[in-house]
Predict the structure.
Amino acid sequence: MRPGAPAPRPAIYGPRPPPPAQTGTPGPSALRRALVRALALALAASLAILGMGGAAFQLALPFLLPSALDWRAVGVLLERQAQAGDAVAASPAWAERLRMVAPPRLRVLSGPRFSHAELEGVRRVWLVSLPGAPGFSFKPELELIARATPTDPPLAVGRLEIAHYEVSHPNPVLASLPDELAQATIDLGGAPCTEARGLFRCTGGRATASVEAGVVDVEGLPRQCLVARAWGEATPLTLTFPAVALGRILGGSAGLLPKGGAPAAPLTLTLRIDGEEAGSVELDGTAWPSFRIDTGRWAGQEHSVALEVVIPEDQTLCLQAVTQP
Amino acid sequence: MSAPAAERRGGAAGRWLPLAWGVCAAALLAAIAPGPGLSDAEAAALAGAGAEGRAAPAAFALSPPAAAAALEAAGAFAARLGAPRLAGYRAASALAGGALAALLAMLARALAGPAAALLAPALLLCAPRLIAALVEAGPLAPGAALGVGTVLAYRTAASAGRALTRLAAALLAGVLFALALALRADAVQLVAVAAAHVLGCTVLRALRPERARLSGPRPRSSPPSLVAMLALGPAAALAFWPSMWGTPWQGIAPALAALVGDRPPWGHPLLVTGLALPAALVAALAAGVLHGGVRCWRAIRGGPGLSDELLLLFAALGPLAAAQAGLCPAEPGPGPWLGAFPFLAILAARAMLAAANAIWPARASPVAAALAAAVLAPGLVAAGRSYPLLSASWGELAGGTPGAATLGLPRQDGGAVASLLREIAVHARPGARIYWAAVPAAALRTYGQDGRIRPDITVAQDPADADLAVVPLPGGNRQEEYRVWAAFRTSAPVSGTFLDEVPLAWVYARPGAWR
């Protein structure tokens, strides 16, 4: 190659493009070449940064996440220190290995929300966090602090952190109606339902229904509730619990499970105590609204409690109801 | 060394590259094939291979019955050799993956030179989600290979010197397209790509006739390929879907209904691609498309290679547009538009090589090698870490699998259950009845035939009748899992499969059933 001649284009870059047509137009200017080079440098820098960063992220991830030993240590800690009325939650919410290590007596809160209804019956909350995990945020802590007081600084257990919160205004539960379903009698439009293996089957007029205590997915969270399914004409469904310990409030939440194409329908829930109407609430059936009915007149005693609801045609209702002092 | 000598050496090496890539890719895919579990889509492809599938064939499915029959034959052949049926099912995909890599290297070499032929298949094979799609038994890998083959034949028909070669290539394009259509109905997008290419070239050349002579292949060489595709495609559809034999006109309506499913949200394929693949690869693919757009614009203004630039861009964007239009089946991850990635890989490889050449022309090769290493490294590390749960892997832009779980993205495609089978075989009590929540029957049948499920274990149809329950966590509604909670009266699993601490599947047990 002659000195001063341009370097040959390596063959690996493919066939050389044909020379530009001799149209009299000038070749690429120095400015244009500089611009192309700057763009190429920017691309190369971006790829290098993203590539090295990506590889570092992948290699570092195992060292940011807890080991099996960390989880076992948390399980032992909870086993030794948790009491009745305690609940445990994970942050981020997907860190559900917690359910494998948490003691069975401890209620595991599944979602990242700590609303009034979620903390019913809970006196203390243990929050197990993965602070190094991608996607971790302090939002659950902030929501929990609005309803509870941290007692001690978080304790580091390997790559996990465990914090302990006292609920500021605990709402103890006297009775949970889904737990009392075995003692209940149910009728659909006046026709009694039959029970087999915890499932009530009802036929009344041109409607059929089934009721059981179950867990359903409502708005992405598991809800332990009375699951009532109805087919055919909308007919009143009455659930009568013979002896329920009452306090000042009967509260809970209710919602229709989403069904493609089904229109939103309001729900009317009527509460009767010893046959006397104690209250009635109208709920937006599509969401998961909570309700509270005053039962102060009957507080401190056991009474017959009847809940009446009309489920829209071919819909499934999830009804959570508890009595509180 | 003189430039012609270097070119001769590069050219000689380049001729062997497609073959080398084909062998390496097929060997790699065959080696890793036994690891990942059967995805729901894979099980759906296998569903027609079993007795129940033959008894009740679907009226119209995206894959024809012949595809399931071919899979069944591959599985039976593997079983006769003493290999797992799953290996047989996936051997066809491994071979197709090898063919795809070889065809991709050939196309890249023709369009961008030997270095691109070296780099483009590596870009295709460096992301866990793309490897998972290529490993999967079913139409994904063969469909992508046939797509690249069709485009390569189409291009040859448009650019070959001899008329006889052009005619043969046009016929080959038609045949390959027909085979692609026989594998999967959404391959129909290839006709749209060819039609758009013919139309684009014709219109642009009509607008700028003075530039036509500089713009690559002959303007009138593409239509014969298109005609062959249009003629052989419907014939293949009729031949491979028996449900359309008697009354084809009545079969077209359900075919169209099945073909045009629910449209995903706008930008869905791009968003999923961006989040599922390693960020460096996403950046390289995006840079490739931009670079291709610039080259296309220059070609439109009179530069060289208008036909090739248009073809590459249309072929890369065609599968993405088909996915956006709802033509592809709704599956988690970028698998449904796998056909776009070979062309995106060529564009990315070309852009990276061009950048290396622009940065330091005298040392372009080392610069290109460094860039390639930077782009390939994150995907290879992620694939090594996530194997065999490749389809649960997410890119750094999503925050990896944990970040994706926080965002509520799908966690897995159904294959994670396979990671629990060994543990179930060890710990389940003898004669255990297992409720397999949302695990396809075809997947269970395959695991059973391969001896991965103990023969004394029976299937329970309802959690109430089961001793154990296996629950995959796809990332959406978890009603199946809550049914198990209610039936077993516990929310505490006894075992699970995790990737980066994100649970992908659980085992629940009644007291005494897990030892």
Summary: The two ends of chain A are 97 Å apart (CA to CA). Chain A touches chain B through 61 residues (CB under 8 Å). Chain A has two domains: 68-167, 175-324. The helical segments of chain A are 30-64, 68-81, 98-101, 139-145.
